[in-house]
Amino acid sequence: MIQTVRKAWAIPELRKKIIFTLLILLIFRIGNAIAVPYVDTATLESYISSAGTSYLTLLNVMSGGAFAMATVFALGIQPYINSSIIIQLLTVAIPALERLARDGGEEGKKKIQAITRYATVAIALLQAWGYYTMIHSYGILTKEGIWAALVIIVSFVAGSSFLMWMGEQVNEFGVGNGISIILFAGIVSRFPQGVSTVYSSIVSGSMHWAWTIFLVLGILLLVVLVVFVSDAERRIPVQYAKRQVGRRMYGGQSTNLPMKVSMSGVLPIIFAQSIATLPVTVWTFIGIPEKGTVAYSIYSAIDTASIPYMVAYFLMIIGFSYFYATIQFNPIEISNNLKKNGGFIPGFRPGKPTSDFIAKVLSKITLFGAVYLGIVAICPLIAGKILEHFGALQNLAIGGTSVIIVVGVALETVKALETQMLMRQYKGFLE
Predict the structure, then answer these.
(1) What is the DSSP pairing of strand 343-344 with strand 254-260?
(2) pLDDT of amino acid 393
(3) Beta strands in 261-376, from DSSP E residues, in sequence order
(4) Which residues pair with 255 in a beta bridge?
(5) pLDDT category of residue 429 using cuts at 50, 70 and 90
(6) Is beta strand 243-245 parallel, antiparallel or unpaired with respect to 248-250?
(7) Global pTM?
(8) Residue 402: CB partners within 8 Å, gap ≥ 6?
(9) Domains and CATH numbers, the chain
(10) pLDDT, tens digit (0-9, with 9 covering 90-100), for 43-56
(11) How many Cα atoms sit within 13 Å of 54 on the Cβ side?
């Protein structure tokens, strides 16, 4: 990875793109430090910290800590991610959008992008209103009234829209996927604070140094697992029959149909976490019940550190993994495309036998990928519960979602750099 970046830096064209991407990230970090007026940030930060591992904590991690400080980028890139997921699901459900994506060409892609932008602004407006309602109900505002509400909501929506625009600029003039890189920068910016928390715990004596070794080894194993599975794929052999068109002979070559083990990425974890933490998050908005009451017993049973929550969380991840695999990979469509192009899988007749075989392989791969995602998501929760039981560390800040995003974006960006270097070599050769 370091060697790839070093080679890319030596090429003037790629150096400009890297510098542009770094400038965008610098603007993102500056915006994360500019607080919105009329909000008591100190009280808000302590409130978010006491929320444990609820959906509020996930939003705070994704925004690089801006959510807990009520900055202009507090909503982060989450509205755009949610909008993209919703439009992707609607593209499968609504025939008009499906035709636009499949047959619309470049113009159709631009229309879908425009719809995604409008949906992003609508979701950002909804989230900004919910954010304002939360801080207003907990008395975290320094000034109340229509003007204060308008300034806070408009600032959040404008910040989220500006982040979406910066991500698109990185796609056009920078390196890699702009939205992913901004998300990557937000998560990585939280790492120094996590290291500082662990160090403070060791110095104060509340955490033994042996637990630090346990944490570091666990994180390294998690990263190795994510890297291994991110590049893993099942290759189904495909043979193309020979056919003569005019005087030329086409086909006859052997290739393969690649099926990634983790084709859904981190989306099943994000959706599962959003739904699984919804009861606790809503209860946090209303007010945490007092200890010793029946309501507090129910709250503890569905808390994000409880065993029932982990089991429900794990099962939801498996369910959403199958759901996304079904949306992204259609065995019948692939079988029909192979049949049209004269391709077949050795040992299976074209048509239904081929689609059944592909569906069977897809089911096995999806199960393995879903269990992998579940393990990555659950392991930090179990480690946090063990550390909390022994009084070593409270609220472990390292999540499986963060690890998958950071490692995945790093690999994706390096591949983008290698692709651009390869294209430049071919271009130089042709010229």
Answers:
(1) unpaired
(2) 56
(3) 343-344
(4) 238
(5) very low
(6) antiparallel
(7) 0.78
(8) 61, 187, 190
(9) 1-190 (1.10.3370.10), 192-396 (1.10.3370.10)
(10) 888 777 765 555 67
(11) 21
